[in-house]
């Protein structure tokens, strides 16, 4: 006999429905197996699907498992914000809305702050792990071929890790980012070569480097292009902080997703001191767009 599981759908890194990055959240998954959760994530076919479980940690309000259509991952940005949105709107918080939550993810405890406009959630901010820097981009020509742009359009890049490993690559202009057309085979080769989960391409839109146009590709996770990638945004912020010689404050506004019809806005704040990154915060809006049930 099948049973029904309820889910909610939210759009993350937007304040308007049908933009940003879609997320399916299962608030009460019961005793689903990993195989069942993976099957559900594949069926939903969003970049990620999350499942909320009781936490074994006293400080965390919940334990969250995150699945792409291809595999479980320990950390991600828009699933963290979207899941926090669903939790904050649960009946148990009806009388007193939480201003902060701690979620237990595969990488450990992640703090989340919630801002309200009246009773509605206006903005959610996650405090990400401090990024670590790996090898530099090894082959600009290969990176250019993977994205169908010219080698001279690539300024450089490198691996940044913040719970996940990303290849962050800077393009010479927003036009180059916009014109990128994925060559799947080459893209898989380059992310595999650098042992990363995906390829983050970006360009600075102003002289101060505070406005960014970015796109993210993760073919090995069955996500050809992601409309908004909070974890990669934090890695990008860390990469830029290093390039800019670790300013005390770096406040970035990222534009992503327009090329695939899901315009998104991501805020990244990086705090540095004495040549070291001290904090990376990633924030954005979340909108509830639907709910339903699935049969197990």
How would you sum up this structure, described in words?
The chain has helices at about 35-45, 75-90, 140-145, 175-180, 185-195, 230-245; strands at about 5-10, 20-25, 50-55, 60-65, 70-75, 100-105, 110-115, 120-130, 130-135, 155-160, 165-170, 200-205, 210-220, 225, 250-255, 265-275, 275-285, 285-295. It contains 6 helices and 18 strands. The chain has an 18-stranded mixed β-sheet that branches. The protein is globular. A hairpin with a 2-residue loop joins strand 16 and strand 17 (about 275-285). About 20% of the residues lie in helices and about 45% in strands. The N and C termini lie close together (about 10 Å). It has 2 domains: about 5-130 and about 285-295, Diaminopimelate Epimerase, Chain A, domain 1, CATH 3.10.310.10; about 130-285, Diaminopimelate Epimerase, Chain A, domain 1 (Roll). By secondary structure, the chain is α+β, with helices and mostly antiparallel strands.
CATH T-level topology of the largest domain: Diaminopimelate Epimerase, Chain A, domain 1
Return the structural class.
Answer: alpha+beta
N-end to C-end Cα span? 9 Å
* Total of helices: 6
Strand segment tally:
18
Low-confidence stretches: none
SSE succession = EEHEEEHEEEEHEEHHEEEHEEEE
The CATH architecture classification of the largest domain is Roll
- What is the gyration radius calculated from CA atoms? 19 Å
Sum up the overall morphology in one term.
globular
Number of domains: 2
Specify the CATH homologous superfamily of the largest domain.
Diaminopimelate Epimerase, Chain A, domain 1
Please give the CATH class of the largest domain. Answer: Alpha Beta
Give the % helix: 10-25%
Strand content: 35-45%
Mean pLDDT comes to 96
Q: What does the main sheet amount to?
A: 18 strands, mixed
